[in-house]
Design goal:
about 140 residues; coiled coil
Length: about 140
C-alpha cells in the first residue's frame, strides 16, 4: 500500500515546512494509518507466501500432467504403429491366400501331388475322367 504523503516529502527544504504545516490531529491520523498498515503487512506477506506455494503446487501438477500426456501420446503412437504393421501383415497374408497355386509360379515339374492339387483346385473332374480313360 502506498502512503499518502505529499509529493515533496523527500525534499529536505520542504520537509521541515510540511512538519509545521500539518496539525497534530492530521499527524495522529497518519500515524494511525501507518500503524494499521504495518499491522496488516505480516498478514499480506503470509497471504503472498500462500499464493506462491499454491503457484508452485500448480506448476508441479502441470508438470506431472504434461509428463503423463507425453506418455499417453507415445503409447498411442506405438499402438497405431503396431496396428498398421498387423493390418499390413493381414493384407499380405490375404493376398497370398487369394493367389493360391499361382503364388508358387508356373508348374515346371509335374508330380502326382502337384497334379492332385491342380485337379482339386479345378474342381476334381479332370482326375476322375483321366482315370476312367486309363481303365478303358
Amino acid at each position: 500500500m502506498i502512503l499518502q504523503l505529499p509529493l515533496h516529502y523527500n525534499s529536505t527544504a520542504e520537509n521541515s515546512a510540511t512538519l509545521h504545516d500539518i496539525s497534530d490531529e492530521q499527524w495522529a491520523g497518519r500515524t494511525q494509518q501507518v500503524d494499521k498498515m504495518s499491522n496488516e503487512l505480516p498478514n499480506i506477506e503470509k497471504n503472498l507466501d500462500n499464493v506462491k506455494e499454491d503457484q508452485d503446487d500448480m506448476r508441479l501438477v502441470v508438470k506431472d500432467l504434461r509428463r503423463r500426456l507425453g506418455r499417453i501420446h507415445d503409447r498411442r503412437l506405438a499402438r497405431e504403429r503396431e496396428l498398421a504393421e498387423r493390418l499390413e501383415g493381414e493384407r499380405a497374408k490375404a493376398a497370398q491366400e487369394r493367389t493360391g497355386l499361382a503364388n508358387e509360379g508356373p508348374i515346371v515339374h509335374v508330380s502326382v501331388s502337384t497334379t492332385a492339387s491342380v485337379v482339386t483346385f479345378a474342381g476334381g473332374r479332370a482326375f476322375e475322367e483321366s482315370q476312367s480313360k486309363k481303365d478303358d
